[in-house]
Write a structure and sequence with these properties.
alpha/beta, 649 residues, 17 strands, transcription regulation, 27 helices, Serine Threonine Protein Phosphatase 5, Tetratricopeptide repeat, five-stranded parallel β-sheet, Winged helix-turn-helix domain-containing protein, Rossmann fold, two-component regulatory system, flat, four-stranded mixed β-sheet, ADP binding, 5 domains
Length: 649
């Protein structure tokens, strides 16, 4: 059953265990309470007895008060989910995920996988791949993450095995539609993670062979044979041994039979890179790192680098600079596309592929209709050539994958606000703000050495107020450069007012606030609420436990939520268990919190929870330092227990 996105009850187990009513996240409680929820969700609407649930949560050594604890967990869940959802029947409990307006991500993944199997059986490989990809997109890391108990452990193993099976089916289809070069990177990573899984090794051998890498395919077999002998004392399964023999014979039946692809009369060498900025400054380490990575394209299937960072940090400027510096390595051309990942309508991969094919010389009427066919033709056009592709402002890895060249000698540079941890084989670069020295150099290049030299201290105040963010520095410097009657001190004074700082940092069609607005618009409701409330907290950073109190969530759910914000580059992980905003993002988050998006009562409740946490923690620290002192007894009672002596902050 599909839940109404506005009011329905949704559950997720293919990652951290979560629940939502509409877009509002629900607290699923402690790890043991999550374990109970999992034991009920994965029983397909069947009632579980109290004893079965005790066994699921604690196994053969339950605590003395196991039944009482079970009833407590069930009562807490019922308050959150409602009595119509968590039902008591015949001394047991039941949650029916097939009930109206209720959904479970596992049920949806199962449905999509079933459709994929039917499409594959009918020979519709394109739609089968789409369904498998839709099913795989529902996964969010380790299933049942951090949920304890023997039942959860067994289910986690089952779900991980199913995930690998789905990946194998999808990768098999990749090879059937000619995406073998693209599949090599993913199969290499999976084979390294699961070295004893022979089906992955078999697919990798076939992908390498079809990519023209016969020796490497045979090396995979030799490595597999040695590994199985050392670890298990067995030989490779017959299918793998037979594939090795067919590769040795260069068996023609291993080659994929594709329809003849149209080709242009002459190969056009595109030169699509945007102009580099003349005042490019600093970034020496990142330039060297990316340049070195691009150089590996000469000896690898494909060199892929993905640059991530906050909006305005200079990702595009850096990527274009590096691409221009490296273009001599790619004499057959350079392709560029703005993927508009932060807009409400990101560019579709099919549209980008059509534009690339036309740039490579394919006539309009010869561009295939389907995305898969366009991608196959694109890779065929680049085969044996050295082309650099710059994919700017990407939304996510799914948007990027069809656009990767996937052939030896080619390379791709990607910029995105999110870290593309799920892009197999990519070299990830996190771009931070400029150093104070780099920031001053950039400011001086735009404003002029004479004006900056006369008021160097004020100039330092300006770049510091900009948080050393390149976009903010460029805007501030452009405003000053266009106003000859202003001194640097005038600008520093204007930026010194935090309440108006974001309003001051705009010039023409460039504005720091608008840049942050684009990133904020990509957040889901749960992330957006956390982003806003975190903007209310004072101080340079905030601890995990303090953030949990502010948000009204438990520590595990809070950590998952904050780490998801870190992945979007809107939040930074200052140290394990501590988080912080960039100075300008903090101002923007506070503005969001003070707008109409939060009623005053919710802001007051959040700050009250945070103050309760700090007061309760201070009281515990005082008690530890002065045992027996009665002052803590006279402090106001708090609704939050604060950090306990056993907690680590």
């Amino acid at each position: 059953m599909v839940a109404d996105p506005g009011t329905g009850l949704r559950f997720a187990v293919l990652g951290p265990v979560r629940a939502w009513r509409g877009e509002e996240p629900l607290s699923t409680g402690s790890p043991q309470q999550k374990a109970l929820l999992v034991a009920l969700l994965l029983r397909g609407g069947h009632t579980a007895t109290a004893q079965e649930l005790v066994d699921a949560l604690w196994g053969e050594e339950p605590p003395q008060q196991a039944l009482a604890a079970l009833r407590t967990y069930a009562s807490r869940l019922r308050k959150v989910l409602g009595s119509q959802t968590l039902v008591t029947e015949s001394g047991g409990y039941m949650i029916d995920t097939a009930a109206p307006n209720t959904s479970l991500d596992l049920d949806e993944a199962t449905r999509l996988a079933g459709e994929a199997e039917k499409f594959a059986a009918s020979g519709d490989h394109g739609r089968a791949r789409e369904r498998y990809n839709d099913a795989l997109a529902l996964w969010d890391g380790e299933p049942l993450a951090r949920v304890p108990g023997p039942y959860a452990e067994a289910q986690r193993a089952r779900l991980e095995e199913w995930l690998l099976s789905l990946l194998e089916h999808r990768l098999d289809l990749d090879l059937q539609v000619g995406c073998h070069a693209e599949a090599v990177a993913e199969l290499t990573a999976l084979s390294a993670a699961y070295p004893l899984r022979e089906r992955l090794r078999e697919l990798l051998m076939l992908a390498l062979y079809r990519s023209g890498r016969q020796a490497e395919a045979l090396a995979v077999y030799a490595d597999t044979r040695q590994l199985l002998a050392e670890e298990l004392g067995v030989d490779p399964r017959p299918e793998l041994a037979e594939l090795q023999q067919r590769i040795l014979r260069a068996d023609e039946s291993l080659n994929l039979t594709l329809d003849r692809l149209p080709a242009p009369a002459t190969f056009v060498m595109p030169r699509q890179l945007p102009a580099t900025v003349p005042d490019f400054t600093g970034r020496t380490t990142q330039v060297a790192e990316l340049s070195e990575q691009l150089a590996t394209s000469e000896r690898s299937v494909m060199a892929v680098s993905a640059v991530a960072g906050i909006g305005g940090v200079g990702k595009t400027t850096l990527a274009i600079h590096v691409a221009h510096a490296a273009k001599d390595r790619f004499p057959d051309g350079q392709l560029y596309a703005d993927l508009r990942g932060t807009s409400t309508s990101p560019t579709e991969p099919g549209a980008v592929l059509a534009a690339f094919l036309r740039a490579l010389g394919i006539a309009d009427d010869a561009v295939p209709d389907g995305v898969e066919e366009r991608a196959a033709l694109y890779r065929s056009m680049l085969s044996g050539r050295r082309v650099l592709t710059l994919l700017d402002n990407a939304r996510d890895a799914a948007q990027v994958r069809p656009l990767l060249p996937g052939t030896e000698g080619c390379a791709a540079l990607i910029t995105a606000r999110t870290r593309m941890v799920d892009l197999a084989g990519a070299h990830l670069v996190d771009l931070d703000v400029m150093s104070p020295e780099e920031a001053m150099t950039l400011f001086t290049k735009i404003v002029g050495a004479e004006r900056v030299g006369a008021e160097r201290e004020a100039a330092m105040d300006v770049v510091a107020a900009c948080g050393f963010l390149p976009l903010a520095i460029r805007i501030a410097a452009a405003r000053l450069a266009s106003r000859r009657t202003w001194t640097v001190s005038v600008l520093a004074r204007k930026l010194g007012d935090e309440r108006r700082r974001l309003d001051e940092l705009q010039a023409g069609d460039q504005a720091v606030r608008a840049t942050f607005e684009l990133g904020y618009g990509q957040l889901d409701a749960e992330q957006a609420r956390a982003f806003r409330l975190l903007g209310l907290a004072e101080g340079p950073d905030i601890s995990l436990h303090a953030a949990a109190a502010l948000l009204g969530l438990d520590a595990d759910d809070t950590e998952d939520l904050l780490e998801s914000l870190v992945d979007t580059s809107l939040l930074e992980s200052a140290a394990p268990g501590r988080y912080r905003f960039h100075d300008l993002v903090r101002l923007y988050a506070r503005d969001c919190a003070l707008r109409d998006e939060h009623p005053p009562s919710e802001r007051e409740s959040a700050l009250s929870r945070l103050l309760d946490f700090y007061l309760a923690t201070a009281r515990e620290v005082y008690r530890l330092g002065r045992p027996g002192d009665r002052i803590p007894a006279h402090l106001a009672q708090t609704r939050h227990p604060g950090l306990q002596p056993t907690d680590r902050e």
